[in-house]
Amino acid sequence: MNRRCIKGGTFSSLIINQMSENTVVNSLRGSKEYGNDPESRIWKPIKIGDKTLKHRIAMAPLTRFRAIGGVPNDLHVEYYSQRATDGGLIITEGTIIAYEAGGAVNAPGIYSEEQIAAWRKVTDAVHAKGGIIYCQLWQLGRANPGQDPNVKVVSASTTPFEGGEVPEEMTTEDVQRYVQHFKHAAENAMKAGFDGVEVHAAHGYLLDQFIQAASNNTRTDQYGGSLENRARFVFEALDVVTQAVGQKRTSVRFSPFSQFQGQGKEADPFETYSYILREVVARFPKLSYVSITDPRDDALGGAAEYTSDPFRAIIRGITTPVSKYAKDATTVFPEPDENHPTVVLVAGGYKPSDATESGSRTGDIMAYGRTFIANPDLVKRIREGLELNAYDRNTFYTQDKVGYTTYPFADENTKVFRLPTPEVENAIVVKETAVVEKVVEEKLKTIKITIRVKSSQ
Q: Which residue out of 205, 306, 368, 407 is catalytically annotated?
């Protein structure tokens, strides 16, 4: 038996009658002892719009650059199908809303009939497994890498981020044309069979460039200057999208603390995004979810001393003050209700153990990114306490199947499991000469397992 299952204890004897080694270990999967409590809120159903999720682990949007010529292909069908679960949520990689909004070669789009037909194959495959899939609506702005000479680099102002090209400041007419791009992209997503759309207003892309003063610092029209003006673009985008597909099929993503692509310089991110979220909740009270990149994020920069709790409170309708500091994050948030149906979805470098720990406190949907890349069966692995595959960064942005659809699934022979926490460890390591007898419930109730363990103390 794998001794790493109970770290710190040495087995002196193990008697198993009529059971294989894997059966013994499998009987412990999905248990509190392994930090993946089956009673956690993370495994409870939750509604987003008119769809009901059967668990609260989602696949985060992940740019992978496999759409040759901007059109999804058979690799996309396999990739998303592999990661689909019954009642599970997938958010696609950033999907360009219009040709002029892109500039990154091999990023998929949702503005042509060919792209719509290609995405339909993906959504059909995900739905065949009972999954729910949203399309993330993407616009690059000054983050355009300049790979397509026919696509101009534009932004809220002429301020580039470090290492980036100096963008052209968008005119008022340009902004209003982009608003219509959002509408058409959302309509196309419905034609492609998506269950909803996520408006990307995070991580230094175009809408975020308008929101934050570091990248919107020279405009004098209705989209520049005051916070109210800087947020106008995102509200107008949400307005046309919700009119086109309905609030219950619309979501939005923000990253208040992310330093990616020159952002994260707001004087007070809580002030900026509290205003925006209060407006979102007031204007669009039935949005399916609001996605927030947590301050703790370890990939895009952040501020680990803070928590997203003040933002959760706005979305959940809590008026009692909550702390903005992670060390004081103890508020247990209520479930969505008829008056506050919008769900919170969070991402930020979470570990599997965070699903039950943080998810139980907040009730959020927990989105996993890099971990989902390497573990197509991530939900199963978290639920059963299985060890994770390691991801390979070298294959994140290549164009073939390696590192995309080639990561292995766990099977019945998987013997290495996620170790329990030190607290759990101490609880299950028995003192010297103690005998633990466990009668396996239901189908194995007649079989007794006697394990003699020697304490590491």
A: 205
The crossing angle, in degrees rounded to 10, of helices 269-283 and 309-316 is: 20
**What's the Cα-to-Cα distance from 22 to each of 376, 379, 380, 381, rounded to whole Å?**
22, 20, 16, 15
Distance CA 43, CA 31 (A): 13
pLDDT, tens digit, for every residue of 401-433?
A: 999 999 999 987 664 454 444 443 344 333 322
Is 397 considered catalytic here? no
Query: Rounded to whole angstroms, what are the CA distances from 331 to 56, 244, 309, 310?
Result: 19, 36, 8, 10
Q: Quick one: the chain helix, strand, coil %, rounded to 5?
A: 35, 15, 50
**pTM given for the model:** 0.84
Nearest CA to 138 among 198, 189, 195?
A: 198
88 contacts 379 by C-beta, under 8 angstroms: yes
Beta-carbon neighbour count of residue 147 at 10 Å? Answer: 12
Given a contact cutoff of 8 angstroms between Cβ atoms, the answer to whether 24 and 1 are in contact is: yes
DSSP class of residue 385 equals T
